[in-house]
Design brief:
The chain contains 14 helices and nine strands. By secondary structure, it is α/β, with parallel strands linked by helices. Strand 6 (393-401) and strand 7 form a beta hairpin. Helix 6 (119-154) runs antiparallel to helix 7 (161-189), helix 7 runs antiparallel to helix 10 and helix 10 (231-270) runs antiparallel to helix 11.
């Protein structure tokens, strides 16, 4: 190594130092080198006296309290990044080859089943996908109208029956739209793939051909066709599994729920509740959903001839049942803000709440209330009184320290007795037989709410 190359390498290895420190070291070693040459040493021998470049740099950096491995770490880091980059490029190439091979095998499978994966075929799939989305969007319009019509009719019924029926109706309409959407997708794409029957016919022809042929090459080709399944068969299996899990299972659950609901409606009809309209309505829905399951199974698994007359019967039942249900809803007398009987008696409730201060908040059944002045009460005392239907509810209050803002709070609420639900149930059945419905929520309400406090405490209650 000559002098120029030695000092150039030394300067490069000392890049971590400042330029001033680096030049001082270089000039010092240049002076040392000149002194050695003056005393008879050659330039090469003088450079060799400094030792190896690694040892020289290590000693210099150690004197400046710098990790001697600094340069190596950067070099190793650069090498590792380079290795990662190379590995990533190799992985991308392998993935590209795998995807390319998969597309080739896919195209071969399509060719074996009478179809070729060409640009025209892919364009056809894309266009059909766009058209399918457009048709599905249009199909939402009648189902939205149907859902809204049913919701408006059911809103005429009493609480809480109309809420339950609204949920059931929305669920049924949603399931029906989902099933129609599946049928639309199948209808749009069924011509893109060969039918299973055609595959069987081709296999039968191949078998007959193998019996007539004698050559070994044809026999091997037939065995190869028997041993492997085409992509379309695998795709059909996946589609069938998806249809079972996503379409048929929800439909089976819907039919099961409709069956139970229809059985309940028939039971109440037998004990005198006029529910013939809902009976026919849900019987038609049950028939329609059951036949829809049969059609999907026939299309997916059996390739049978489709029969649609049960849908006509189902529609007739739904229309007649819907009209009778509408007529029933129109003829039921709904007595708003009235209780089912005048024999119900209100009971007085009165309690005294103590230790009220300016930080106390009152919550009384989410009711607005005014505080009346009663100077006979002590400071910090509040009296609350009201009337309630004691056969159905039991009032109570609790005084607690709120975690938010560390405020005091007094909250009044109702304890709904278990037997009150049974009472209301029998009362509703009795009223339905007479085609009358009352506001049963009033049984859980209070009347004549009054709050008393003296002049000082009155300002604290809010």
């Amino acid at each position: 190594m000559n002098k120029e190359k030695f000092f150039k390498e030394l300067e490069k290895r000392l890049q971590i130092l400042s330029e001033e420190e680096r030049m001082d070291i270089i000039n010092e070693y240049k002076d040392t080198l000149r002194e050695k040459v003056k005393h008879g040493r050659s330039e090469k021998e003088a450079i060799e006296d400094f030792g190896s470049m690694d040892e020289l740099v290590k000693n210099i950096l150690s004197a400046y309290k710098i990790n001697p491995e600094y340069g190596k770490e950067k070099e190793e880091e650069a090498i590792s990044f380079k290795n990662v980059g190379n590995s990533l490029n190799q992985w991308i190439k392998k993935c590209s080859v795998a995807v390319s091979n998969w597309f080739q095998e896919l195209n071969e499978d399509f060719k074996e089943n009478g179809q070729e994966l060409t640009i025209e075929f892919i364009t056809e799939l894309v266009i059909k996908g766009i058209l399918t989305l457009f048709v599905l969007a249009l199909a939402t319009i009648p189902f939205s109208i149907l859902r809204g019509l049913g919701t408006n009719i059911l809103e005429m019924m009493f609480f809480p029956i109309h809420m339950v029926l609204n949920v059931i109706w929305s669920f049924l309409v949603g399931i029906l739209y989902f099933c129609v959407a599946i049928l639309i997708v199948i209808a749009m794409y069924k011509d893109c793939f060969p039918h299973h029957k055609e595959d069987k016919k081709e296999k039968t022809k191949e078998k007959s051909k193998t019996k007539q042929s004698v050559t070994k090459e044809e026999t091997k080709q037939v065995k190869k066709n028997k041993s492997g399944r085409g992509f379309s068969e695998v795709l059909m299996i996946l589609v069938r599994v998806w249809i079972v899990l996503v379409v048929l299972v929800p439909l089976w659950c819907t039919v099961f729920g409709l069956s139970i609901l229809l059985a309940v409606l028939i039971y109440y009809t037998c004990i005198g509740v006029p529910l013939l309209g809902p009976d026919l309505l849900f019987a038609g829905l049950l028939l329609g959903f059951s036949h829809l399951i049969k059609i999907i199974q026939d299309v997916t698994f059996h390739h049978k001839r489709l029969v649609f007359y049960p849908f006509i019967i189902s529609i007739i039942f739904v229309v007649i049942g819907g009209l009778l249900t509408f007529d029933l809803a129109m003829n039921i007398e709904f007595h708003d803000n009235q209780l089912p009987t005048s024999e119900l008696q209100l009971k007085d409730y009165k309690t005294k709440v103590e230790n009220i201060n300016e930080e106390t908040n009152f919550y009384i059944f989410d009711h607005e209330f005014d505080v009346m002045e009663d100077n006979s009460l002590k400071d910090g005392e509040v009296v609350v009184s009201f009337k309630y239907y004691h056969n159905y509810v039991t009032p109570y209050y609790r005084q607690y320290q709120a975690t938010v803002d560390d405020e005091n709070a007094v909250e009044f609420d109702m304890d709904y007795q278990g037997h009150s639900v049974k009472k209301i149930y029998h009362q509703v059945l009795k009223d339905l037989k007479d085609k009358k419905i009352y506001d049963y929520d009033l049984l859980y309400e209070i009347e004549d709410l009054k709050v008393y406090a003296n002049k000082k405490t009155k300002g604290f209650v809010k």
